[in-house]
Amino acid sequence: MPRFREFHLQLPHITLDNSKNLRWLYCNRVIRDLVNKLVYFFFPIFLFQYGQSNAWFVTTLSAVQLGFLIIAGYFLLARGVNAISLIFFGQLVRKYGHKQALVGSYILRLVHFTFLLFSLKQPLLLIMAAAFDGLQSALFWPSYHTILSKQTSKRSLGGDLGVLHFLLQVAQAIAPAFAGLVAITLGFPALFLFGLLGSILGLITAMFLEKQNDPDKVSIKEFLNWLKERRYLKFTLAVGSRYMSDVVLFIWPLYLFLLFGSIDKVGYLYTSALFLSIIITVILTIKLDKLKSKHYFSASGSILSLFWLARINMVSVWGIALLDAFDRIVANFHWLFFDLLWYKRGKGSQAHSYFVYSDLVQQIAMCFTWVLIVIIFLVSSLWQTLFIIAALATVLSTLMQSKHEGTR
Fold it and tell me: pLDDT tens-digit profile of 319-339?
């Protein structure tokens, strides 16, 4: 593998890698995450309201339960389609390459946002939108992670990820408040139009990537063989737990909406918390490669778990804003360290297989979590239970280890 000059954050300016391909990849990721925060930050609220106003069948469920049923149904379908198509897409990438995978994912993403836009008039199109959501995601992420893994040196990987996280934090800090303002003044269709525009920009940047073929063979048989290894099962528990907590975090804005009854207030609240935490990412970018001990990682996971438990009794606006700010500060370190271990483990000749199978584990974990959410809200409608699950999942994420520590 050719060595690229490392890039890292040196205040007061960012020095980027000499790799043109990596620059386009980072640009693509920032655009994608900006779209995600613009459109998907309030997407649970959209689906919740959608479910309450578009009951397709006679039901005795409460309005709140029906709203959650639509949310869970959408993401169960999307994650299920994703899981089913991952191996097939992984085999196609071996033939056509990673660039074509990213280009194809944005074409599917354009279709996805188009269906979302017209689903307001034709509810059945929401089902098609969920299916294409799963397809585009399955085609994008394994190839994105493989390219990033192969084109960054292991020695400077922490700094590389730190720069990327810093750029993503800046984009994500702006998006929620802006999205809330757009949703209030223009409605959700305007957000879906932003999604279409962002997907076009993502498609353009993907076309500038170098064509990269990958001889790594992906198969369900190999995945099952990996699962037979006890150490790999520990890895799947860490990855699955991380994405269980992500699902609960994803619907956290809905909890704030139900608590405060205002979309724009939720956006401003989240933006304030993210701005307060950005400076920590800058510091971590410089220090992360030097932190060899996992004690920091374990401690941050424990602190994040306590923050989830603290949410159970937190109901004031400023209390939640302060809690979210501290949560983002600790989370920036914890998940950055998690990603560092995850990427280091994935380096090697089977990088693509590793990321495909990791994504498959993620989708299964998220499907399980959405089923759990349905059961919880049909039985008790208790947010507290979800916060406890997220706390436990965050602790289990600290099981993540790098390859040299003997996990595989």
Answer: 777 787 788 778 877 888 898
